[in-house]
Every structure is written in C-alpha cells, then in structure tokens.
Amino acid sequence: MKKKLTTQQAASNAALLAITSETPFDKRHDCWFCGEPNQYVFNYSNTIEYKVSESRTIPKLSLPSCKECYQVAKSSLTKAKYEGHYYSIWTIKAQVKQYLIHHHRKDLAIGINWTKAELEESGFEEGNFAGFQRSAWFMFELARARVNYVSWPLIVDGITVLDEYQEQSFNFDDVVYPNIEQAMQHYADTLSLSLDYFRSVLELLGDNNFAKAVRFCRLLVAANAFERQQALRQLRLDVTQLNVSKSNHT
Ligand SMILES: [Zn+2]
To answer: Domain range holding 238?
Structure first.
C-alpha cells in the first residue's frame, strides 16, 4: 500500500513538473548540445527515480539535436537505464561534450600547437599540405564552437533548472571542458605527456596554474622516469619554500 502511494506521489510530482523548455527563436535551428543545425529530437525520459524532494529534476524532455549529439545522448541514456543508474540531463550533456572533445581532439589540438598567425605563415601554401594549412584553423574554430556552445536554459514551472555540472566546468585557453580531468586528459593526449605525471604536477601547483603545469611537463617531455621524479621532488621543495616565505610575510 505504502509503495503504491509513493508511486502515485512520484507520478503526480512528475505531472506537476510541466516542461516548458521552449527553444528561443534565434536558436530554433540549433542543436541544444552543440549549436550545429538540428535534424533530430532527443527525447529524455528518466523513469528510474524522481529526485523531486532534493532538487528539481526533469522527468521528460524533448531537445532538438544534431545527428552526432543525438546518437551520443541516446546511447548514454540507454546505458544508464540498462545499468540502473540515474542520469540527469546534465550528466548526459557532460557526456556529449566529453565525446565531442575526444572525437575532435585533432582539430582542437591545432589551437594548442599553433596560433592563427603562425599557421598562416607556416610556409605550406603550396604542395601536399596547402589544404591542411587552409582548413586547419577553421576546423579548430568549428570544433571549439561546438565544445563551448552554451545550451539555452531549461525552464520548469517558470524556474530555470540549474546545470549541476556548471561549477565543475573548467575554462582554459578559451575552451570550456566539462571538468578539469577532461582538460588534463586532452592536454596529456595532445602533447604526449604522462597523465599521471601531469596530475601530480598540477596537484602541487594548484588548478589556477594549469598553464604553468603544462609548461613544466613540456620541459620534461624528453626526460626519463628518474629525471621526471627528481624534477617533481625539486618542484615540491620550491612550492613548499614559496609557501613558507609567503606565510612569513603575512
Ligand atoms: Zn550537436
């Protein structure tokens, strides 16, 4: 009996959460995830659990999507249901972004390895790499725009549902990553750095010094494991001494 009531309660709560995820007029052709032209509609339904009491969650939603995002979102939701997990729409969005970063990693790498001017002056105007030189920056900008695309807000009962992943997102060099782990992974892949080593360096220097951590690891890219460990020890000493001298001054 009690169980039945709970189910009824959940159903009525679900009914109360009328979804008015109206697409803004200027975004009517956009994919909600990445801003590319939309051709599909991703139907989100979360039948596993209603977390209404903790925070407002969305039981049902239809979002315009491009083919690529639609496929990723759909398989992410199917997997969650199969495994009996609760995935919010924000979890799915973070997974779509993660996919985009991974799938377009070569295009995104252009922006890490080159500036626009450097690429224009790279001297490949003729020959086999002329096409690459012409299109590389454009491909980078396209990939970055999809990764960075800001989805329009979802409104339930006139209240904007907060993106629970917003706080985790990490912005570095004009690219927005779903979280700092994704950024580390991307830089480690692109620059052939050891991810574990990069993580240790970043832990020492702090998340605000992401650029410095990248530079430090790049300095040691040709070093062997022993030299890298030595460098890490030295860095730890430097950071500790810096902290000591800072606390002496305050
Ligand atoms: Zn898309």
So the answer is: 191-250
Per the domain annotation, does 158 fall within a domain?
no
Residue 244, Cβ density class (10 Å: 0-12 exposed, 13-18 middle, ≥19 buried): exposed
| pTM of full prediction above 0.90 | no
DSSP bridge pairs for 171: 176
Q: Ligand 1 centre and the CA of 151: distance in Å?
A: 10
Which of 165, 178, 153, 30 minimizes the C-alpha distance to 99? 178
- Cα(67) to ligand 1 centroid in Å equals 7
pLDDT at 59 > cutoff 80: no
Tokens of 114: 């080159």
Assigned domain for 7 exists: no
The mean predicted confidence, pLDDT, of the chain is 84
Q: What's the mean pLDDT in 60-81?
A: 92
Task: Please report whether residue 242 resides in a domain.
Answer: yes
**176: in domain:** no
Q: What is the pLDDT of residue 9?
A: 42
Expressed in angstroms and rounded, the spacing between residue 12 Cα and the centre of ligand 1 is: 32
Q: How many independent structural domains does the chain possess?
A: 1
Q: Is 167 buried (19+), middle (13-18) or exposed (0-12) by CB count in 10 A?
A: exposed
Judged on CB neighbours under 10 Å (0-12, 13-18, 19+), 3 is exposed
36 Cα: distance to centroid of ligand 1 (angstroms): 5
pLDDT tens-digit map of 110-132 = 998 888 888 888 888 777 778 88
Is the separation of the CB atoms in 163 and 90 below 8 Å?
yes
Main-chain phi, psi angles of 170, to 5 degrees? -130, 120
